[in-house]
Amino acid sequence: MAELDVGGVLARDPKPAFYAIEEKYVLNGKKKTRRGILSALGATPKAAKAIIPHERTLSKPKADRLKMLDAVGVNISPIFGVFADPSGAARRAIAAGMKGRPAASGRSHAGVAYRMWVVDDPKKTAAIRKALAPRAILIADGHHRYSVSRDHHAKTKSPGSDAVLTYLVPDEDAGLVVLPTHRIAAKSLKARAEGYASLKKAPTLSALEKLVEKSRNPYAFGLIENGFWFGEPKPNGCRSGLAVEWLGSQLLGGTQPDEMSYTPDAALAAKRAKDQKGAAVLVKTFSVAQVRKAAKAVGLLPQKSTYFYPKIATGLAFRPLDGE
Question: How far apart (Å, rounded) are the C-alpha atoms in residues 167 and 175?
Fold first, then answer.
């Protein structure tokens, strides 16, 4: 891979390496630290058997990304994957790579503080490989880019196209956060919602959020349209245990992509709905384990089902596809 050296010059590293990444950020007033590694994730048909996607993709975004990959020939923005680490072996191996002075540090535009170590010691890289070898990787973010990487490899068979730059984090890492992705529709939904669920009025946005989170119904949702409404639907055969699946097939079924937008911020969702004279749907939070269970039960979920926060920054390292 290539990285920015201390002089600000883009240079290719002389030896194969993992890149250990530490991110410090604040969420809802709480300080958090997430640790993971930048790696090359296989994009061949054989490697893809151990990769678990959980969101549907669209043809146009994939076509755009394929054009860019063909033109640039470099993985610029890493995809994001998570994996189970019940024994802690991967976390220990990653921590071992974070010894000494980091190769780079800085802060992103989103306020996330980064430190990065180049891990090229053979014993340390072997320990990371061993810890990761038996693990299935759930794609957290970058479904389009992973699909395009597979298509690019199938088309070109170039030496370095057999993998894609990926940021990997253990499920058990204390700083791994999944935020709900609320939906905003540029149309009314209240009448449709009344046909699918019992609605109860809430006095404020804060009260609505609490009702959604406290509900034992995994498909519970909040509706913002001419007031705040708490909905508890019947699942109608949904097996995922995630509200986004029910919403996609029922309440938002038939809604066109250009009628939808998304945000993890409930207040922003409410504002956008008001500005568009439409409706916002608040989604219940869920864990990585629930995402895995849903993907196993029903396969691919609707677009923007999850928001793993924070997104990994672009530019920490690049991966050329020339195989050198």
Answer: 14
